[in-house]
Structure formats: structure tokens, C-alpha cells
Amino acid sequence: MNKTIGIRREDKSIWEKRTPVIPEDVVGLKEHYGINTIIQPSKIRVFKDEEYISAGAKLSEYLDSKFIFGVKEMPVSFFERKKTYVFFSHTIKGQSYNMPMLKKIIELEDTLIDYERIVDDQNRRLIAFGRFAGIAGMIDILWALGKRLEWEGYSTPLLHIKRAYEYHGVKELEENSKRIGEKIKIQGFNKEIAPIIIGIAGYGNVSQGAQEVLHFFPVKEVSPQELPKVTNNENVIYKVVFKEEDMVKRKDNGKFDLQDYYTNPDKYYSVFKNYLPYLTVLINAIYWNERYPRLVTKEWVKKNYRQGIKLKIIGDISCDIEGAIEITKKATEPGEPVYVYNPKTEEVKMGFKGEGPVILAVDILPSEVSRDASIYFSHKLKQFIPEILNADYPEDFVRCSLPSHLKKAVIVYKGKLTQDYRYLEENLKKT
């Protein structure tokens, strides 16, 4: 049996250069599993068309395969009847802007497998770009902080930081960070803006990627409880990582229980506002939906933001619009990554100048380090591709032979929402 996968070119943004399968793995899939590859041509993909041709892939506008792989959302017009699509659909929260796409998948009796839901028995993701979102996000945030401080009248070593996409890769990004870290050790920060404190909400892959970058700077870690006691050290960057038990309290003053919080978030309220006055930068790296308390509310910003406030930058790496960071009004792109949120008018102004905190909300951060991110992702994905192609797909989803970690990721099966995702029916009705 001739097995073939199709790889769609990314066209959601001119900045989206990632690919789910790199040329090296095209070769491996053919040699080890007899799987052929058809790929759409692209002028912006980080790996060139010629590299795929040399690897044995067929270049074609039309993807003559039952299995189509991509990275980001696909346009409604792209889908064909009774095919299987594997990509980040961004639908599991009922995102309204992607419900027409989900509706089309259902109408065409397609199957949708979402990378985001490929998880193990402990619900831990087995394939993700999170680390690279953290790496690119942290560099862009430090770049924005340098620019904002310069606008406020302070020249710092952070002005030597470039945006993530301006580096040739993660290695060059790290080497430049080391050099700037040495400058901070020697020059330090102005007394008026020190101590520089970066708070990171979350401790998963995104948070780990962000912290990985900070390791190249002179960093001192403190606990959330130590924030009021942080001294005015001008030659270090302070780092504080917030876990759930730091961010919320039980309404009945009982003991915090992580599983109980996940199951019954309505029993808890946010105390995160207590930390905000101490932070220079806040990085949001948590999973959030409307059941959970917010980290930053419009109300808090309106009441507390004033000229000279310590909080300069909010890096919303998770990028949920009006979500955990309620003042994240829209997503941005790498070429214009930040805007200022005006707490009085609730309006935003692109750039880093103006009254209000600077918001970084790039929703395709891993694309800024496209080569490294694609290599990592492809090496993870290649183990799942043979499982997807070799599975039996009978009419009854219960009898589908996909392994459990992939079966959990099937949102739509032959035109029907699977049991775990039936809740999306309510969102589809609003489309």
C-alpha cells in the first residue's frame, strides 16, 4: 500500500515560516516506514522547496493525500471531503474565530487531530512549540523593556538586545544574551529603576523556555513571599516564578489543593494583584480559560496605573485575548510586537510610547525561531505519523485503532465531534 502525507504551506501570516516536517525527517519517513511526502511550494518556509525535493518529496499545489499536516489554522476553502487533517486548530476553548473552520470540517465529514491534545496518561503534552515560545517571548520582552526604559529616559544594556527573529537561530540569540549579561554585571541599571524584577506566571514548557534565556543574564531568584524584601541591587535581574498556590486562595480560607483548584476553580479567588506593584515585568505563561481567575484585570490597571509605576511590560506569551491578562486587547506579529494599553480610555497604541503598560502579545512567537522550532517539532512528530497512517478508521470511533495518546487528540471523527469535545456544539450554534 502506497502511504503518503501532504504538508500544507503556512499562510496565516508572512511571519509564519515553520513546517511540521523537515526535509531530514522526510527522508527518514520514506526509508523506515515507506511513507512518501507531497509538499506545497512556499516562498517563506524556513526550509526551501529545493531541500524538500532533494529529500525525495514531491512539490505540488494539490496535496493528493488522505492525511494533511500543517502548523496553524487552515482556511475554510482548503478542506476537502473525508480527509484527515492534523494541525493546531485552536478550537478547544470554543474560539469563535475558528468555529466556521470547525463547522466546515464537520460538514465535509473530515477527521481533525489537534497537536495540542496529543497527551500522555497524566495529560502532559507530547508535542509542542512551548519552549520556543518562551525563548522568543523572553527575548522580545527584554527588547521591549530596553526600548520602554529608553523612552522614559534610561539607557541600559538591554538596548543591545534584538528581537528574536533578527537572530540566525537560538545559538546566536544565546551568545548575544551572554555578552549583554556581562554588560549588566559591569554597568548595572540606574538606581531609579532598580531592582529589575521579572515575574513569570507558570512553570511549564513556555515558562522553562523563558527561564532558559534568563540563565544567560545575572539572575537572582526569589520567592513570591520575598518580593517585599528585595534589595536595590543594580547589577542583577531578579526572577520570581509563580505557581497556582501563589496566585489564588480558597474562599473559605482552607488549605490549597492543586487538583481541587483545577476541578473547582470557583472555590478560589485571585490574590495576584498583591504582587503586581513589585514587578517590572510580568510574563504570562499559564493555560487559562474563563473558569479561572485572571492575573491582571482592567479594573486593577485603571485604579493602580500611574506615571512612574514599576510595572513596565506585560509579556502575554499565552496570548488569550482579554483572558488571564484582561488588557490583552489583540494579538500582534513579530514585526510590530507591542502596544501600550491606556487604562483611562482602554484604547491601545502600537509601539512602546505612551501612558499605560506595554503589552507584548505575539501569538506566533515560535515562528521567530522557525528553524530550531521546526527541527524540534518535526523530530517529535515523526514518531506519530506512522501511527496515524497505519491506524484503522472504521465508522465507529470507539473501534478506531489509534493509540490512546492520539485518540485523545481527535476532535472531529468523520464529521462528528467526539465525546470529549461535544461541548463545542454550543459554540458551533453561535456560528
Under CATH, the homologous superfamily of the largest domain reads NAD(P)-binding Rossmann-like Domain
- Determine and state the CATH class of the largest domain: Alpha Beta
What CATH architecture label of the largest domain applies? 3-Layer(aba) Sandwich
Shape: globular
Determine the N-to-C terminus distance: 40 Å
Beta-strand share of residues = 15-25%
What level of helicity do the residues show? 25-40%
- Mean pLDDT score: 96
SS-based structural class?
Answer: alpha/beta
- According to CATH, the fold-level topology of the largest domain is Rossmann fold
Biggest β-sheet strands, sense, barrel = 8 strands, mixed
Number of structural domains? 2
What is the count of helical runs? 13
Task: Note poorly predicted spans.
Answer: none
Radius of gyration: 23 Å
Strand line-up in the sheet with most strands: 3-2-1-4-5-6-17-18
Offer a concise description of the structure.
By secondary structure, this protein is of the alpha/beta class. It has helices at 23-33, 49-54, 99-107, 130-151, 170-187, 205-214, 244-247, 258-263, 298-304, 370-381, 385-390, 404-407, 424-429, and strands at residues 3-7, 35-39, 58-59, 67-69, 84-87, 111-114, 196-201, 219-221, 237-242, 248-250, 268-270, 281-284, 313-316, 338-341, 348-350, 358-360, 410-413, 416-417.
